[in-house]
């Protein structure tokens, strides 16, 4: 049994980029944690931030509940992720609370700044999660172990070349069901970016599936670091 | 009015990877030439080569006819492309016959050897097409001009990052119609690789469209070379 | 008619790296905005910062005036660009004021830290410019549109491989005239780095011209992102 | 039970670059085939080719016998690998004879020309092994399946960044024992390149082990292609 | 006689990654400065930070003394390097104090966040070290010269491809002796990461030596920038 | 005293891409060999090949004579370089005749096919030059040593990022004088490609000089291979 953590910048990022993989982990009996760093409260041009934040937290809880995942709600203001000391402390506490064997987060080459900075904060907090003397933390240090760090695809798959694939054909409908919980964002993407989220997610999963030799797939890359070149598969 | 040439390894490669763009060129009044280097006669496990080659030539002629393109049939044996002197001579003659302003061919990083070698032969024949003293050529030298060379996407879009896009939304149905002419290959792909060609082409065009901000797109990269860094768009 | 914005770190960066392109846009009737993020007031070893900042602003206004460009003067202290919240707010306001269709800024791989951080701030402010609820902004949100983002060459063209070129042969003398307005920097570069700016700019434009097949050119790369893979040319 | 094939250019390449992994496959009950494309008969400055070829074949058979691997002896003249039609035919027959589920060969970026060309020939023969109508072959077509293709590290690990690792700690002594069979080459490397092969192999396996978090490892990269993005681990 | 500066994030980084090269510089009569940015006081799970910081400073002084190097002790809290204004000021003062002709620091692609940020701070402080009007500095500006900037290998050499090598065969025992001064860290690495530092350093130096054609080597890459493309060797 | 060999595809390639460096070697007393693989006899649209070949050989001899270099004239037909067995034999003999310590040739990423194939042939012949039993060679094996292999810039410097620079400021006029010997090609470049060779060479050398911090420079990259990671500078 492993602890699986996915840290995303906004509500719905997990569902778009990683949910199929997390469903498979959940079905195998692993413990899943969603960490959503911001409240996604700027992602609309009509609904005011305070109201939107509450809506999006509720939608995220519904999505996480579908696979029995625990939700850590970071509550950082949307579009305001910075790799500074304060947010580092928050990220260290998130990692400590999840004590992960496997971490998923955004790719450092993503084209949304919040995504990049969340990725950087996860990278930056990797060692500190297991060091007991870091000051100003709310949570005690977790294992100083060799958690594996995977980077997720981006919205639209722009310039992303996966090195790892997970077959999500059998759980794709659950992924879509989880995404559909994010009603507010499904609507906003339609208005702001003329994008049908469900269709976009299907095209992307199908495109990755063509590469992977299955119907639907999610793609990832892995961070290489000392003693973390894997000699077994930890992906489902 | 420009001369547009697409050189592909097998019948159906043009339709899968470039037809939308060629339809648009044709609609703008440019002169289109299809060059199919091999007869695609090995691409089946049941139909004997001689018979298959004839079928595929016929299917290709039908597809080219849809947009009034001229067809140059290379007739090289399928799976036997080599960047040697004999095939170089053939490729130089093909380029000379088309006298192109814009050339499309496979990417040098494609994962099918025939595609790679056709790409290499086009690259290798670029200067010679315009040099009058190359011996053993059937065709006279054409213009020694600065034709632009674009590389096409590959089957499934594996590891290919386009730097240029063409919006093919309005002509996508024509592209599919051209592809459908290749009945024998549509069937073989289903049997050999469990692939529905029409669906694969739609997923890929839609995926490139997500990147390009339109419904359907084809993606390309451009060869950079002396005096060929473009200062205007020659793509439709 | 498009709104064209160039955001640079220091006075004279625009003239060195992008002015030819901006002249061409201006000649085509587009609206040009120069945004100079710092006052360039550290760029000398003799003239004190306060005095130097005033000189450089005056010089920049003269250069911008040559093509009737609007100037936004960021006023950040030279050599003190940081991608923090305060400067993010400033950059969002700059983008909102210009409401750009096309943005030019430094490359993220530039070797001057101020250049890199300005580039990062532009990247980081892209979505926020169009989101109405971002707090603490002086300017109202502008269009949430798909502005194109281009990265400029660097000083000396070190390790920069352009993917796009603009032919500036006919306007090169205007570019040099604009650069010549920066008298203080022309002098400082001579003293600090033993560099004749006008000559360096000519060599670099000529070198890019060799690649582009014209006398003088400026080179750029483009940021690829969701729905921003261009299907038409927005460069002059 | 899978068919595992390793195609190398010279006797001793398999032992240096892949033997640990093959031992592990053998211990798991898979069927192992060594294919050595050249006879390695030029690799000495004193022993004449004909004599050396016989010595090296004998040494290779001893090494293969240690893990009960089948040996296919290509017999091409050392330093004379060319990706031409004749050697392509030979390579297709080798692949057909082994009918592999997993193929290992040299990396296309290796710095020995024979290694590169063997790699290219394997790449070039991939589809043809399963196509029944390829003329002039001695062996009948094998499965047209989705064999996975892995590229091996190079001698000294120069510029090679593995994406996959196999833990060979427990079988490292067997790898060294297999290498030691190549007495003639151990001696030649000492004379020609001042290299102690056993020590070099230990340093390299230990270095890859540092990355992989184990005592000794071998590193590989994987060829990405249509339907070959793996969703499970086929490495031991 | 040149001023050689090595800026590292933690005590023992210099010894692991650069000491052999610094010994050689010292033997040639150059002036060596060690700058250790943090006190390394979080690098243990038992010894409290305050105590650990003192131990590590003492150990570092012993190591530096072996080659008569000057030590600048940054004193930043371990795991708390940020590329912000405060630490930038500190780094500028460090560079000014050393007034370097050659600078070594961590690679921007290192996988420890402190290493990356130290690298970034060095990069960011490069020009400011020689500009006299930077406010809030303790040290006066040093030369505005063309110091060369080299990036060091990382722990375990993960994904690092050196472009420059220094032969440290004759001074390798001194490097190991310097490393051995870091008793506390040798012990912590054993406990936290199951790593024998001396053995790891030997494997890595030997591996780089295989590439460089000598027994032991250290590898580096060089920052390319305007007027800093070297036309002579400044490495020993 | 070292043996310096430059192998180029056509007459005038050495002068354009490497002559400054060779002048400096010559001035330091090293032995210089020019090897021109083809006779350049296709490089004109008016002068017939046989006549042109003679003209170009004469021009090349004049250029080589200026620095007392030996000339090996390969005599291969222009635009007909192939990496096949026959041309491999020729290249091995060329390398054996020069017995080089340092080799310069075209970059494998050059955009002229003859340049690429000459580069590949040099790469392919590296080991064989020192192996005594290679059949069908005219020359006896030379040293099996660790000659360094450098790749030259390309015409126009397209997409080439040098990692090594040679300061040719003091010998630039000699380089131009050598280039001027190639009267026929100076004329052809003007006609065929609208290029003033002397001006192009000056722009490129000046551009590389900007990077290298001198007036004129030539840029190179180095091939990394086992035991060839240099620990000293062999460039002038």
UniProtKB/TrEMBL annotation, chains A, B, C, D, E, F:
Molecular function GO labels: hydrolase activity, acting on carbon-nitrogen (but not peptide) bonds, in linear amides
Superkingdom: Bacteria
PANTHER family reported in the protein's UniProt record: N-ACETYLGLUCOSAMINYL-PHOSPHATIDYLINOSITOL DE-N-ACETYLASE (PTHR12993:SF11), N-ACETYLGLUCOSAMINYL-PHOSPHATIDYLINOSITOL DE-N-ACETYLASE-RELATED (PTHR12993)
Name of the protein in its database record: N-acetylglucosaminyl deacetylase, LmbE family
Protein source organism: Chitinophaga niabensis
